[in-house]
Specification:
By secondary structure, the chain is α/β, with parallel strands linked by helices. It is about 40% helix and about 20% strand. Helix 9 packs across helix 10 and helix 14 (about 305-335) packs across helix 15.
Length: about 775
């Protein structure tokens, strides 16, 4: 067995409705099912989803108070008043600044931007910053991607005679801030038909309203901010990102183009993944380590040399950010591993940890331990702890923290993420209280889940089908990239790949079918040795088209797998056995029948079975390893039947050069008998070297023949010498128990060492999967 890392959740749709939609839209049935789940049920919805160029975005004046905002800004431009665009330090914030600043400059405004420092000022408007702006002659502040919750700051701005326009998309409070205008898609007076815009989307709407037409040349910036902020990629956001990606490919912002080149990103092939994994992390990096101004400057510059300088600074910051994340994650994990138990919530902290990257660290801890994680850095001077939390679906992090808001000086977030600040002295109490809040969580709650779109057959998968799937992009929130399930796959040519051999490459096939699908799994190379040749594997992953030498082929990016049955592994060769001995597994038990084998196992868990005593397999294990060979196969059958392990490994001493002993023929027995009779009393130990030299026997054969004589009462041993008994009746050699046992032992060794994998698997299968257990003879017949 292999247990999947994730819980696989498949949302079913009505088959008849899917068939009807497939016929109506003239598309493949699996694609029709995907569209039904995305609430696309008509030709019109289908057309809008796949052909954004046919549609216009919504009228910006449907947003409440947009007319007030436009009037005040135009007044400021006419009077040459000083305008300050007050932004945020993340990718959504800096793209919002760039969109609005470019628009204001185009209109001739006297405008500058300001981004609060994450470490000294925190998120959003603050009174000292507004006071400074007032003293420097600023007449109008326009917030972008922030401000909706800063009620006290806005009241102060009014008191000091500073006009403010708020543009934001974060959750509003019950009361709107006091401002000249509040532009927010969730404004209670808004008639806007879509309320999931990102901060940059709201800024773009204001730009549209100011210009009287859409500044479509800025849509690449809108796409970057929207994808980076993980908002819903449906409705208007989908339209903005689709068109923005086109702009990014065909005529990108100078700063984005230079940054992409520095990062070796091909903008002419840009997708939402280019933004999410390439551009956005770099724009975010500078604000995580210090002032975020270089990111905004990069997006605003029209000087190629300045763009190159800023791109290099940002790329260097991203490299530094990555290393800090690695180092801090290592420290956090060491702290967690040092605890007596994990607990249901991970609360970990350290002095001097960079608070700008702790959200990333918390996400990594959730990925490793599958538990909610809160990571905080403590300022050793002030004694203040500040950090971020990430959660699992079963635990509402915001609600749990909100119950203990009194312990914190600042706090905000949502069900899956939160930011918090509190005195370090309160950390232990917060940890204790959160463990109580999470006490209801079970192991099932800690297991991450994957949303599976559909079960597919290999025959469903083609280049044309994947091409249709790619038209569902851009993927993101509420429009996830489809993940498919393929059941009972046979894996062929499975191997580790990559410089560090951490990735998996294989070929998927179904029984009795020539159809095959290439698959590659990143970071799951350790599964290669866990898949047996006979395994029927369930796999989930994303489909893509792999092009090589102008040949296009479907490919699966394997994300998880499950083997729902027991497996047999043949480790009778030396290299495989060495690997097994080097691995350490608490769920593995080595079964030995000889003392000498135990000494070769080192610290591995093992049991030594004494064949002369009755044996009961009173243990359970996931993995059972037969290290050597018993004298009869019934012991193996008994152990397998009673333990029913998930994985069975058979070695049988094969890699030790174990030779199959031969039984002396009847001539040899007669020769030894004659010698003993002639020279009795016969000192067997004394004459053994001469017997070996004269007849070519080995000592084991000589001892065996002697013991057969004793067993048949042909002779006896007295004081180390053999004496022939007077034989009353003639007896055959095979009447001897000793002789029979040796024959059985040799037969067992031959079968276990020389049987092929199919024969061994068939034998083990009869024990693992049936209630009637055949004897060892079935191995010989391959049944």
């Amino acid at each position: 067995m292999i247990h999947s890392k994730y819980l696989w959740n498949i949302e079913e749709v009505a088959e008849d409705k899917a068939i009807q939609l497939a016929e109506q839209l003239k598309i493949a049935l699996p694609l029709a099912k995907l569209l039904l789940k995305r609430k696309i049920t008509t030709q019109g919805q289908f057309d809008k989803f796949f052909h954004p160029e046919k549609y216009e975005s919504y009228d910006p004046f449907l947003l409440a108070e947009m007319d007030l905002a436009v009037a005040r800004i135009k007044q400021a431009i006419e009077l040459n008043e000083q305008i300050l665009v007050y932004g945020d330090y993340d990718a959504d914030g800096v793209t919002s600044i760039a969109v609005l600043m470019k628009t204001l400059k185009h209109l001739g405004a006297n405008a500058e931007f300001y981004i609060p420092n994450r470490f000294t000022e925190g998120y959003g408007p603050n009174i000292p910053a507004f006071d400074m702006a007032k003293t420097q002659g600023v007449d109008l502040i326009i917030t972008v991607d922030n401000g909706i919750a800063a009620l006290e700051v806005m009241t102060h701005a009014k008191e000091i005679g500073l006009d403010v326009i708020v543009t934001d998309h974060h959750e509003p409070r019950e009361v709107m801030p006091e401002a000249i205008a509040v532009i927010h898609p969730k404004h209670p007076k808004s008639a806007y038909p879509f309320d999931e815009l990102a901060g940059v989307g709201v800024a773009y709407k204001l730009a549209h309203a100011l210009l009287g037409e859409e500044p479509k040349e800025l849509l690449d910036l809108v796409a970057v901010g929207t994808v980076a902020d993980l908002v819903s990629l449906t409705d208007e956001n989908r339209l903005l990102v689709q068109l923005g990606l086109r702009q990014l490919r065909e005529g990108p912002n100078l700063g984005l183009a230079v940054l992409a080149k520095k990062a070796s990103l091909k903008l002419e092939e840009a997708t939402e993944e280019t933004i999410g994994f390439g551009i956005a992390p770099r724009l975010n990096a500078v604000g995580r380590l210090g002032p975020a101004d270089p990111a905004a400057d990069l997006l605003l510059t029209e000087d190629p040399e300045e763009a190159l300088f800023l791109a290099e600074e940002i790329d260097d910051a991203n490299k530094e950010r990555k290393q800090i994340v690695v180092d801090t994650t290592k420290l956090a994990m060491e702290t967690i591993e040092a605890k007596e138990s994990l607990g249901n919530v991970l609360v970990v902290y350290g002095e001097g940890w960079n608070t700008g990257i702790l959200g990333i660290v918390a996400s990594k801890l959730v990925g490793v331990y599958n538990r909610p994680a809160i990571v905080l850095g403590i300022d050793p001077v002030t004694g203040v702890a500040k950090g971020s939390g990430r959660s699992v679906e079963a635990f509402h992090l915001y609600e749990a923290l909100d119950k203990h808001r009194d312990l914190m000086t600042a706090f905000g977030g949502h069900p899956m993420a939160a930011g918090l600040t509190l005195p370090a002295d309160n950390l232990a109490e917060l940890d204790t209280l959160l463990q109580k809040e999470a006490s209801y969580l079970s192991e099932a709650d800690f297991r991450p889940s994957l949303k599976i779109e559909e079960k597919l057959k290999l025959t469903d998968i083609s280049v044309s089908f994947i091409t249709q799937l790619e038209k569902l992009a851009p993927f993101g929130m509420d429009n996830p990239k489809p993940i498919f399930l393929l059941e009972k796959m046979n894996l062929k040519g499975t191997k580790r790949i990559g410089a560090d051999k951490t990735h998996l490459k294989t070929l998927l096939q179904e029984d009795e079918s020539e159809v095959a699908l290439d698959a590659i799994g990143f970071g799951v190379g350790d599964l290669v040795e866990k898949i047996s040749p006979s395994a029927a594997v369930d796999v989930v992953g994303e489909l893509s088209i792999n092009e090589w030498n102008n040949i296009k082929k479907p490919q699966l990016r394997l994300m998880d797998m499950d083997v729902p049955h027991w497996q047999l592994f043949d480790v009778r060769n030396k290299s495989e056995w060495s690997r097994i001995l080097q691995e350490q597994s608490n769920s593995r038990i080595f079964v030995c029948f000889e003392e000498r084998t135990v000494a070769t196992l080192g610290e591995q868990n093992h049991i030594l079975v004494n064949e002369t005593e009755s044996f009961t397999a009173d243990f359970q294990t996931e993995e059972l390893v037969f290290a050597d060979i018993p004298t009869n196969m019934e012991l193996i059958e008994q152990i397998v039947r009673e333990t029913k392990p998930e994985r069975i490994f058979v070695h049988f001493d094969a890699a030790e050069g174990n030779q199959i002993p031969t039984i002396p023929d009847r001539v040899a027995f007669a020769e030894l008998y004659s010698l003993i009779k002639k020279f009795q009393p016969f000192p067997i130990e004394k004459y053994t070297p001469r017997l070996i030299q004269k007849f070519g026997w080995n000592k084991e054969q000589i001892d065996f023949m002697s013991n057969v004589f004793f067993d048949l009462e042909f002779a006896k041993m007295e004081s180390g010498q053999i004496i022939i008994n007077q034989v009353v009746e003639k007896r055959n050699l095979d009447e001897s128990t000793v002789y029979q046992q040796k024959v059985e032992e040799i037969t067992t060794r031959k079968k276990l060492l020389y049987s092929n994998y199919t024969e061994l698997h068939s034998w083990m299968k009869s024990m693992m999967e049936t209630s009637i257990y055949p004897n060892a003879e079935e191995l010989e017949n391959g049944n």
